[in-house]
Amino acid sequence: MNTDDSRVIERSLTAPEAFTTLYDRHAAAIHRYATFRLGDDHADDIVAETFLVAFRKRQRYDRDRADARPWLYGIASNLISKHRRFEARSYRMLARIGQDPVAESYADRIEARVSAESWRRPLAEALARLSARDRDVLLLTAWADLSYEETARALAIPVGTVRSRLNRARKQMRKALGDAPTVLQEAATHG
Amino acid sequence: MDEVNEVRGLRPEPAEPEPERLAAGRALLLREARRERATKAPARGSAWRGRELWRVVATAATVSAVALGGTLTGLPSDSPHEESTVRVGPNDQRVERPVAVAARFYNAYLTAKSRDDSQRAGELRARYVAKDLRAYARKWRTRHDTDFLLRTQAPRTATYSKAEVDEHTALVRLDGDRPTTLSVRVDPKEQRITQVAEVLEGPERTVEFEVVPTEAGRALRREP
């Protein structure tokens, strides 16, 4: 399905309206990713801005890349990073008082409460402590399902940097879980 | 990958967004695409990176503050009618429309904002900002508690550059507590701002601005 994103972008250089095909293909996924990270209130704007920015920069898109998803996720991540304080605060709230304003904005109360179960709290605390750059790598991999190579393209960094950032993030996650032995056991039953 | 999988389960998975949720963004994109077609000005690849000769500036406050090496605390000109006062480039040519319109609006708008003159700010928006963008800006404000047209709290000065995406878009840098750069698109016929987007920070997106003094006194006159 995504094999011809680059052709769409190429066509849009002479027929700008063609770019909406890209929107129709990927807007929902970007929306879900933005919702995951910032909640329901921000997602519409993040999506709209992501595609406007992409449209204006499309001339520079590397048309050897058939799949435009990493490029779009990269733009979305940049926009999301402008809300990094809000994002970190939401993880801290989840970790400390079991309330997740982000999840509550799009899931019903029961779901949101489940998401705030105690075994997740150390993870949330660790996410809050991650640097924004490490968090981007981790969440693009975990929530956007991008491969290392795609994450590297999204963030315009070498694959080796993706690996090292992800390793660092995973260590912190592991440490967070390790600090709470009961949590580890419980997490294992979910895994 | 265990830790990564655990992170995946941190929050409930969002449902597919309803089509109406995506419709506004699609409409904005389509409008932008149609505008580009109408103006026959496709995006230029190197626009953000190029060091163009066209530089402009804006305000006496900016110029004097930079010249003195001081902090940027001044206010821009308050006259929205002073198109003739904004000049650019090595040959001192008159600024083309988008920059002039953006400069007139932002100079006056920042002044109104700094004085908490909401009535004046509203008049300026009505005059310089397209109706649908005003509606979008209202929605934005309720969600973000920030002025969509500024994207940052309490900017003090504005600087303008013509190193932009196309001939209908000006770059506006707002300096204050959190400096930001905006891409401001202007409808040449209506002389109204039709889109304002924040230019992302990053090495390849960095835009060079230079401060070039304009005709002191004329360009920078303030209303009493």
From TrEMBL, chain A:
Residues 22-89 form the RNA polymerase sigma-70 region domain. One of its GO terms (biological process) is DNA-templated transcription initiation. It comes from the Bacteria. Residues 121-173 form the RNA polymerase sigma factor 70 region 4 type domain. InterPro entries: RNA_pol_sigma-70-like, RNA_pol_sigma-70_dom, RNA_pol_sigma70_r2, RNA_pol_sigma70_r4_t2, RNA_pol_sigma_r2, RNA_pol_sigma_r3/r4-like, WH-like_DNA-bd_sf. CDD domains: Sigma70_r4. Keywords: Sigma factor, Transcription, Transcription regulation. Pfam families: Sigma70_r2, Sigma70_r4_2. One of its GO terms (molecular function) is DNA binding. Gene3D superfamilies: 1.10.1740.10, Winged helix-like DNA-binding domain superfamily/Winged helix DNA-binding domain. Belongs to the sigma-70 factor family. ECF subfamily. PANTHER family: RNA POLYMERASE ECF-TYPE SIGMA FACTO, RNA POLYMERASE SIGMA FACTOR RFAY-RELATED. This is RNA polymerase subunit sigma-70.
TrEMBL record, chain B:
Residues 1-24 are annotated as: Disordered. This is Uncharacterized protein. It comes from Streptomyces oceani.
